[in-house]
Fold:
Amino acid sequence: MIGRARLTSLQNQKGFSLLEALLVAFLFLIVALSIAGMINSSNTGFDVAATQAFVQRTGTAVSEQMQREFTTATALQVTSCGPQGAMGKAVMYMTQLGNTRCIYEWTDATPPGPQLFRCNLAGWTVGGSCTNTPENLLFIQQALNAPRNVATQIRAQNILFQRVDCLPNASGACGDPGRQVVSPLFDFRFDLDIPNVTWTTSDSFPGQRFAASFTTRN
Amino acid sequence: MGLPVGLRRLLRSSNEQGSILLITIVSVAVVALLGLAVYDLALIEAQFSAASVIDYRAYEIAQAGIERGIRELRNLYMNAPPGSESFARVTTTCTPSCTATGFHLFNVPNTTIASQSMASGPFAGAVDPGGTYTLEVKFVTIPEANNSIDAVGSTYPFGLECIPDSVFQAQRWCANLAFLRSTGVTTDAAGNTRTRTIQTLVRAASTSPWTKGIVAGNGNPAVSGEVLIAGSVEILGGPSAAPALSISGGSNAGMVNNWYPLVAGSGYSQADQPGFDRLTPKQQFICPPGAICSGGVNLVESLGAEIKIFGNVSNQMVTVGSGTSLGRSGATSLYGSPGRNGKGELDGVYIASGCSLPCTGGSPQPFNSGASVIVDRGNLTKPYPTNPPSGPEWTSSVPGFPILNGIVTISDNVSGTDYGAYLNNWFAPHTDPGSGCAGCSARIAPGTPVNPASCVTPSNCDGGGLTLDVLLNKLQDSTPPFRHQFVFRDRVTGANKTAEICWRRRDTGSDAGANLPTSNLTLEFGVGLSGCENPSSPSNPVLLWIPFSWGISRSGGPIDYDYRGAAIIVTSGGVQIDAGLQTFCGSGAPSPCTEKFPENHLLAIMATGAIDLATIKPGVSRIMGYFFASANGSGTAKVAVGRDVKVIGVLRGDNVCFSNLSGCSGVNTSGGIPGFFQASFLDPRKTPNELPAPYEVPSQLSGGRWQVISVPQFWKECRRGPADTLPATPSGICGYDQ
Structure:
């Protein structure tokens, strides 16, 4: 009786053991998937943080470079120049030695989309064509340690150069005496974005927004 | 045989617990690793951010140093007696030596900006570490200023004419130009240190209207008519100005930046060689923007012509007539002695808030459609440089366009004194016994007889017994000769000084005296007991107050009157001049003249009424002088210039109108297009201190006669890396040719 009982007991244990193994495997799978999800989320979070940091650095670097160039410029003009014919999408400026340059929004033939370019112009005239190969201001910041391949995917959107005619009063009127500016002044805004890497289209605006006012000391 | 039940249970239990533990450990490790990575990324970002902030702080500290340095240079310049202002006076503060040709330390106290923390707000508790700046100065030699390409083999944005320093003549330094460098250094709490350097060229420029061309106040327009203007036009403008400047007349009108049109054979209808011969050639020819002047080629003579209009941003500020051009393309042909070329382009255009290219097309653009404006680098877009406006278009003491009775600071060559009203508080007490000038007789009241004290035979010089108001209103060919002695108070000594005004002295017979002028029809001003035999100079001019309207008008056909000496005349009323009025050319009337305008002879007329120049009689050749019409704030005083004439000197008034039908209620339109030619002192420090200039800062020595500012196009940041040292000259990483 005792031997039968033991056998029955062993048989029961083997049955439970299989069931338990399946259960363990199932639970392990769930846990593993959860961990994988967590790792993936963490990895994505890391990528997001790194990419966001890259975008931030790039935007700051672009803004600082523009500040350096515009501060020493002897003339600034929000107008069409280079290949860009739309108003508010380009700014023309004159260097200390009288060379004219243009910074403008432009979309190259290949993705990722609109970007910021700089080129030289023949003279201080509206709509002048570039006389050299334009430089991509976003790409020339690649020394900034871009993660993965995002440096080639960054794009600038919602670019707006806007001349400030005067310092308006509360009613917004510009014609009152004493409100004119004393050196060329314009507002500049742009968004930097890396499509499908960082943000979704449901965001209120894509990427990070940068804005500054520029004037000249010359 | 199987394992004992207890052991199996234990193992089973152990396996289950071990898996979970292992999984947990691995998971925690992975998450921790990623967390650390993100944290590390955040740290890197924080370091980037801190470096960026400290970098920007260093930049702002360097900028603060530049502003401080400009102020210190300004103080040095302004604290000098009139006529000897110079940056090169930094003899007590530069180390190691002021004779250095490169930058040297400019020692000023208190160059540390203290650390401070935010007391409140969202960033309360944040600490600004402060920092320090170091200033350096480099004096500029005259050749370097004029043509840096030749002088130092470097390239500056353009050449500048400068005032030669009178002390350091051997070094040939400019008194009013100096390079200034400021290096800002700051270190944050994390130990990040940043250094940035800014460099600029500082210039002291006179704000006196007497160093400009045409200076006008409010008006609609303030300057108008058919005219050729050689020199600057500066207009205050106002809310209703539309436009402030209106010029027409075709190819013989507009604006130029040289005296070439005066030269015989220039092709301009204003050609006037006698007028040109009386002007002092510029001593320095400069390399204009965009030119390569290596070997001394392409240097030009420039009048520094600019258009400056504070104006408004609602209306079109400038109307340029068809076929008329403001500025010319390229340099002129060779002219004068020494032979030189005149600069074609205007130096600059500064209007209201600036404009968007093409800047033409009517309101709100500053120029009308089709306007031709030729300016350095084609840049029409610049705004008027100060807000509120500054001198000479504006004085803060009125406030508004300066008036004859405005507040001024006048120096006795030692220190400056403020006077609340130029005419009432300074000029009258220096001329009128009724205004506190005891013993003076420089105010010629109506009915005043001639005082022929210099003549042995009074009837030779008493103007035929006529009173001075009759003789002077109007002075003609037939006006009897006279020598009138009077007394005014000297600006420098404060003592009374004897002076004399003479007309047709050659015709006074035995009382003509020595040192006679070449022409009978000469109006003379002299000082001392010898009177007109000792012509007064612009550094020591005669003061005369004529409290009634007066004028000069030829009797018959066109003829030129000469004047000799220097006089500053205030007139209560209008002035009408309808005869050629030119400076004495020198004994024997050599050609070109050995005595010049305004360096040797100067007539400055300030009237509380209108000043009309050649508005009645045709064929007036030239009128040379400085003219200021001021209604003293009650109404508008105009300067009107008629046809044919060439006005050489300075014009200043509420309105300045040339031949046209509408401006100033119309000015004579028959005859040739008139010309205006700016003739300032070569050394603006020599401009008579007796002439009122805008007043800007109370108790400021020398008044606001000098504006010390960074020269446009010379402001730059040196591109220094962490291991770079600054070059001794504006070259390399601090060069302008990059």
Q: What stands out?
A: The two ends of chain A are 109 Å apart (CA to CA).
